[in-house]
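User: Here's a chain of 450 residues. Predict its fold as tokens.
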Amino acid sequence: MHQNRGLLSSFFLFRENKTNLKTEIIAGLTTFVTMAYIIIVNPMVLAGPDTGTGLDYGAVLTATCLAAGAATLLMGLFANYPFALAPGMGLNAFFTYTLCGAMGLTWQTALGVVFISGCLALIVTLTKIKGLIIKAIPSSLKVAVTAGVGIFITFIGLTNGGIVVANPATILGLGNLGDPKVLLAIAGLLISAVLVIRRVPGNLLIGIIVMTIIGLFVIDPATGSPIAGFYPGAYGIFDKMPSLTPVAFQLDLEGALKFSLIVPIFSLFFVDFFDTIGGFVGIASKAGMIDERGDLKNGSRALVADSCGTIIGALLGTSNTTTYAESAAGVNAGGRTGMTALVVALCFIVAPFLSPLFLCVPSAATAPALIIVGILMCSSLSEIDWNDASKAIPCILTIIMMPLTFSIASGLAFGFVSYVLIAALTGKYKNVHWLMYLLTLLFLIYFAIL
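Assistant: Prediction complete.
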């Protein structure tokens, strides 16, 4: 044991990072608990009963866990970062509601789009294009995209929980508050909010578990059965890992290589890329991973690991994999090296063998997690200069068009085009980077095709 500890210490540089094996293990378990909700929520978003994507739920659950495990393992071993990765919120909604929903793509083609966006991210990371893109995109639009995705996720959570429903007279309306499933979602929202506010570790996961347990004893009037149903596996709560065969390596690259899909591919890349950059800086600053020039130490390796995560996820059968902000929980617990990520990866790899527990979770129990994750993403709104209309108007269009059109790509397009056109028509065209003009042209072509 002492010898192994020495090997781990030298490989992960414990002494240089002022940490030890015990601290790293605790940090890894802390991070896993705070983000384990994605094991339940991602399959629900991608393959839930109301999504219509055609993806196999059990296979997506396994793909979620293995993609998270593989990508996080790569982050730990290749970059030596205490960051964990998993299929990203918002990116999974884009897959379901924009690619498969609004655009009518098959899930195989949608996986091809995800794969190409991951390859694009890897190319950008390995070249000077990364710095060009970071410089070209106005900071106000970057934060607006994050907030817009957050409101979109919140909206999806409200509809999944039945709290907001379609209404022919007003387009949208309040759901039936007498419906047990709606009441379960509202109760879960309240409980989860309290846990988040009190900063209880694993708050969203705890909320999902509590609501699922309650759902076992609440009857759905429409079916006469409990809202949540538990079906034991071969060994009680343990079972064989759900097969990956229905989704793994099924991506349709030929179908994804169409001109009409350039904007969706760029949209996925953009949201993932800047979400990752923002997350890296925020978490790394807490872990002392920023050098004297303000750059991430070993940051290129971390970005490569993140890009490869999306490529791996697409091959296995899930949406874009990205670095999770919940990694900050492990950093706060003392995690400083890739050993923290290694622990998280092992937890994700073991998780599919507990599939009977995950498969009994109803959408009413996961809806509160979606709502709260979306709300927390809106914190970036404070960074927008609301007194400058030339910035505020494109930001509002970006944010509001995502949920109203049920498309992150459409919101992104409205924001970019309006920003450039407003700048050009108010005499500020010289302040706009040439790449923004190119992107605007691309978005206009996208609108024309739609």
